[in-house]
Amino acid sequence: MKVGVFGGLFDPPHTGHLIISQHVLEEFHLQKILFVPSGNPPHKMEYSPFENRYAMTQLAVEDNVSFAISDVERMFTDKTYTIEMIKELRKGTDDEFYLMIGSDQWLEIETWKDPEEIFRECRIVVMRRPHHEVKKEARFFDRVMVSNAPLIDISSTTIRSRIKKGLSVRYLLKQAVYDYIKTNNLYTV
Question: What DSSP element (H or E) covers 182?
């Protein structure tokens, strides 16, 4: 099976994540997109507890039979690295993995743990993001596939900021995710 692996904080997961995932699923003829909320990423300092991000992501993907979620990063006790997550997912399966990363992440891939190993373990799909060019002169460019998914300028950071200010996030989140945020009083402080 060809599986897209979409890792991230998902703090919170928004409609941009879903739109782009559906596009990549169809563009690269994948059978499934596996959303993997990050456990303890080395490049981020502040984020909501794993349980909240996992629950919101589950609510975001539950109505699409081609979307699934993994809690594989919950088991890691230290910093979580993409290569370790991919190797853990590969255990017991012969699925072909397509790691989905944004062009902002693509600019940082040289700083990731074992980037060469990541390319040996899976294919890489780079999804363009506004204000982050996919540089063709980058070291690994000849080994990536660049998605033609639409540029969607929605970010979890903006959503958190809008909630904190009491502004509407209508159409940016699925209703079930918004309800979870309200029920659990997230992003208000």
Answer: helix 175-183
Q: Supply the Cα-derived Rg of the chain in whole angstroms.
A: 16
d(CA 115, CA 120): 9
How far is Cα 30 from Cα 154, in angstroms, rounded to an integer?
A: 24
Tell me what pLDDT residue 64 has.
Answer: 98
**How long, in residues, is the chain?**
189
* Contact residues for 49 (Cβ-Cβ < 8 A; gap 6+): none
Q: Which residue type does 76 have?
A: F
Distance from C-alpha of 56 to C-alpha of 150, rounded to nearest angstrom:
23
d(CA 60, CA 68) in angstroms, rounded, equals 10
Residue 87 near residue 120, CB atoms below 8 Å: no
The CATH number for 2-152, chosen from 3.40.50.620, 1.25.10.10, 3.40.50.2020, 3.40.50.12780, is 3.40.50.620
Kindly state the average pLDDT of the residues 131-148. 86
- Over residues 41-56, the pLDDT tens digits come to 887 888 999 999 999 9
Whether this prediction's pTM lies above 0.85 is answered by: yes
